[in-house]
Amino acid sequence: MRVWQIAAYVLVLAAVAGCAPKMPQLAAPTKLQDLQLSKGLVQGQGETPANTDWWRALLDAQQREILRLALRNNPDLEEAEARVQLAAAQLRGAGAKLVPQADLAGHIGVSRWTQNQFYLPPYAGESSWNNALKLDFSYHLDLWGKERERVREARLHLLMMQQKQRAATLVLEAAVVQQLLAIAGNDAVLAQLYDEQQILQQIESIEEQRQQHGLSNSLAALENAARLSRLQREIEAEEAQQEQNREALAVLCGQGTRLPATLRNAGRRSLLRPYWQSPTQVPAAWVGERPDVVAQRNAIEAAAAAIQVARDAYYPNINLVAFAGGLAAAGGLFTFLHPGSLQAGIGPAINLPLFTGGRLRGNFDASQANYNVTLAQYRKTLLQALQQVAGDLTTLQAAAQERASLQQREVILEHSVRLQQQRYQAGLSNALPALEVRVPLIENQLERLRLDTHAEQTLVALYAALGGRVVAQTWPEKSAVHG
Fold first, then answer.
1. If I label 223, which of 37, 105, 114, 189 is the partner at 20 to 30 A Cα–Cα?
2. What is the count of structural domains for the chain?
């Protein structure tokens, strides 16, 4: 090859490379340090690591079996697993161009050669074997790194899908534990409502006796009947809510609307504990380590790799290609395998993008826009995560204050119950005041039960929002349970 021909090729390559746009200065993702945080979120790492089975310490053996059933059968997790498998397959496909490619092709047949074209005797008008076997080899040199960036993009996409799978798992785990808490709360509330119903029925019986003896008018009996009617409606509503919670739990477990018989009464009441504690502060860094937040960071890196791929598309593709094989249109069946039938070749193959109608520029601009989209999505995900954690902390702190008020009121009501019981036992009053004074105590306990259920559900949501971390000294020991 002459020097001027080599120079011409170099000039063409340089001209094409000169058409490639410069890599843009990409904006950096939002950092936690740059955001204003509420007092419940503090800078620092903390000492509690994220745990894939964070819920183990919260549940008993049967409850853990329910959660494992959900992890095995929930369709959301099945979808997330399928997306991970899809991303893994795409990664394998993206890496294919970085390894040598080889194809083997051949054909065996009989051809009759025309007399009216360029075929001369002895072929014209005759038939003969027309066989061929060819091995093609190619290797993409990837001088500009486009395929390596494409592989990096696919690998980051796989990491993103894996983190999204973990995020979906956390959401499911929290939902199952919250449903178990809701059912436990229904059980405890119904037990108190049944106690109140029994007391009101005793009061009704006493009022009927008093009315028969002329010691009371019908107004007191009517008021008590109205209370019993309201209480019955409350019991029916609570029972309906309990059934709905059971159905929701079965759906989470992928079992239809009914759990297997062996798991329908899986130690529900033991899950409620009255001595939960509200965390005062948690490290903001835990929010940054959440799977959904990490997934969005992976998406940003993948989008940056896609920009590099779009830019490298301006450069020529250079492949090393070779072929070897046998070809014969005459002779016997296996003549194409004889040494004299061998044909082979080797050399570079260059593909230069010259006129693409704006396609390359459009792809490059689109990749930059997609990067900005992922930046905004990351910022949104991070802010929503911070809001969720801060909101849970605020809810728990307010619940702790309300619990303190209910506890103080309960002490007063218990004292009143003891006094009335003492008066009744001493013969200073009948049974009616001793029964009536127990009703406000039960109603206070009902309010406390509902508060504890909601607070513990919020704690579970907080643990999941922190990536699967049970904040130390916030969940009581199993010995501290509602009776």
1. 189
2. 2
- Comparing 86-100, 178-192, 194-208, the range with the smallest average pLDDT is 194-208
The 3-state DSSP class for residue 244 equals helix
Q: Interior CA angle at 217 toward 214 and 223, to 5°?
A: 145
Same domain for 425 and 407: yes
Neighbours of 465 (CB within 10 A): 28
Backbone torsion region of residue 21, taken as left when φ is above 0, otherwise alpha when ψ lies between -120 and 50, otherwise beta:
beta
Query: CA–CA separation, 439 vs 418, rounded Å?
Result: 13
Residue 294 lies in a domain: yes
Query: Which conformational region is residue 214 in: left (phi greater than 0), alpha (psi within -120 to 50 degrees), or beta?
Result: left
pLDDT at 439: 93
Contacts of 202 (CB under 8 A, 6+ apart): 431, 435
Phi and psi dihedrals of 322, rounded to 5? -155, 155
The predicted pLDDT at position 10 comes to 54
How far from 431 is each of 61, 204, 213, 437, CA to CA, in Å?
Answer: 44, 12, 16, 10
9 domain-assigned: no
d(CA 41, CA 21): 43
| Whether residue 364 sits in one domain with residue 441 | yes
Q: Is the dihedral of CA 270, 275, 278, 279 positive or negative?
A: negative
For residue 474, is it within any domain?
Answer: no
Average pLDDT over residues 132-158: 92
Contact 426, 161 (CB under 8 A): no
Q: How many CB atoms lie within 10 A of CB 379?
A: 14
The answer to whether the beta carbons of residues 147 and 305 sit under 8 Å apart is: no
In which band, very low, low, confident or very high, does the pLDDT at 483 lie, cut at 50, 70 and 90? very low
Residue recorded with tokens 């091995």? 135
Which amino acid would we find at residue 59?
L
Residues of the domain holding 391: 29-99+144-315+358-465
Residue 146 has pLDDT above 50, yes or no: yes
The SS3 call for residue 392 is helix
Question: Is 18 inside a domain boundary?
Answer: no
Say if residue 122 is preceded by a cis peptide, omega within 30 of 0. yes
pLDDT (mean) for 72-99: 95
Q: What is the DSSP letter of 474?
A: S
Q: What is the predicted pLDDT for the residue at 86?
A: 97
pLDDT of residue 16: 54
pTM of the full structure: 0.86
Q: Are residues 133 and 149 located together in one domain of the fold? A: no
Mean pLDDT of 467-481: 77
R_g over Cα of the chain: 38
Which residues neighbour 379 within 8 Å (Cβ) at sequence distance 6 or greater? 29, 30
